[in-house]
Amino acid sequence: MKVKFLLPLLLFIVLVIFLAIGLNRDPQEVPSPLINKPAPAFEIPQLSEAKQSFSPASMKGQVWILNVWASWCVACREEHPVLVELAKSKIAPIIGLDYKDKREDALTMLAMQGNPYLLSAFDADGRVGIDYGVYGVPETYVIDKAGMIRFKHIGPITMNILNQKIYPLISELQKS
Amino acid sequence: MKLILLIALCILSFGSSLAKDAAPLADDPVIEQRLISISEEMRCLVCQNESLSGSRSDLANDLRREIRTLIKEGKSDEQIRNFMVERYGDFVLYRPPVKPITWLLWIGPFIILLIGIVGLLTYLRRRNEAVSNIALSDDDNKRIDALLNNKNEKGAL
User: Fold this and answer.
1) Peptide bond into B100 cis (omega under 30)
2) A27 → chain B, closest CA residue
3) B89 and B144: one domain?
């Protein structure tokens, strides 16, 4: 008899727990189907040297970071100092993918805020971005020696994410 | 003053007669129709409560362009859907596919319905039993008959 009396309360508590979990999740963070899949191949011109091209195949054999950015993206400017910090650590090369940008604007931003990238590929029409499932710049991928995507972060990376996720993951991937 | 107004009106009306009709959205209405039918079933990832066909976001424009190209290449609807899912995951589809992780989503409502039906049936059975357990004695029957007859006589009057 007593249990029956408590049943609505228990159901209510379950409901509240589900709502609390739902409210605390970021709806913008959609799990990427690309994790543990080979990084899509592409070959597009570089940002600073339009005549030279970049292809992910050239990064085979090392762990590297692909960062999708654009000069028009405010969150990218916010993230930029963190990337500069990451580049200083020299833990892994960072390749930029300049997404739907204007060359001059992008180069100006790098000149003003520092250039953490080994090089940036220039994705003028966003076609490469589509292959990587980009929907909100900035996005960051960690790609292993075999060219597999191991980690994806949507939105600006922070020092917290660097220390808790990216650094440990990279050093683990470099061991294998 | 009136003259200036008149001239201005003349110029304005002349200008509007030169204006062109709205340009058609695409050269090929068949492709456009397929594009709409495919993209209506897809979520725009930037503005998640809008369909890909309705969104004006930059990414949605790009993706519609991409789907248009795929249609022109002769890809089937299924292939185009796979193209999108490979890049953006099942989240891009408004109708989640049936697979182990979505089983609960698909059959959950039916399980809840089943629990409801079972609960209702047991409740009704228990109530029926409670009612049928009342046994009437002969005395009771006599009283009932008497009451009913009494009523009938009154009704006849």
Assistant:
1) no
2) B48
3) no
Nearest chain B residue to A40 by CA: give it.
Answer: B87
| Of the residues B47, B74, B97, the one at which a domain ends | B97
One domain, residues B31 and B86: yes
Asked if the Cβ–Cβ distance from A135 to B88 is below 8 Å, we say: yes
Strands A64-69 vs A94-99: parallel, antiparallel or unpaired:
parallel
Q: Is residue B22 part of a domain?
A: no
User: Cβ separation of A130 and B91 shorter than 8 Å?
Assistant: no
Q: Which residue out of A128, A135, A149, A154 would a mutagenesis test of the B interface target, given it has the greatest number of B Cβ atoms within 10 Å?
A: A135
Q: What is the DSSP string of A117-175?
A: -SEEEEETTSHHHHHTT--SS-EEEEE-TTSBEEEEEES---HHHIIIIIHHHHHHHHH
Q: At A97, phi and psi to the nearest 5?
A: -120, 105
Domain that holds residue B147: 101-156
ipTM of the complex: 0.79
Q: How far apart are CA B125 and CA B118, in angstroms?
A: 11
Instruction: Give the closest-approach CA distance of A81 to chain B in angstroms.
Output: 25
Ordered per-residue pLDDT tens for chain A, 176 residues: 677 888 899 999 999 999 999 888 877 777 788 899 999 999 999 999 889 999 999 999 999 999 999 999 999 999 999 999 999 999 999 999 999 999 999 999 999 999 999 999 999 988 999 999 998 889 999 999 999 999 999 999 999 999 999 999 999 999 87
Closest by Cβ to A30, choosing from B59, B66, B89: B89
Q: Which helix (H) or strand (E) holds A67?
A: strand A64-69
Does B86 touch chain A if contact means CB atoms closer than 8 Å?
A: yes
Q: Which two tokens stand for residue A76?
A: 């990218």
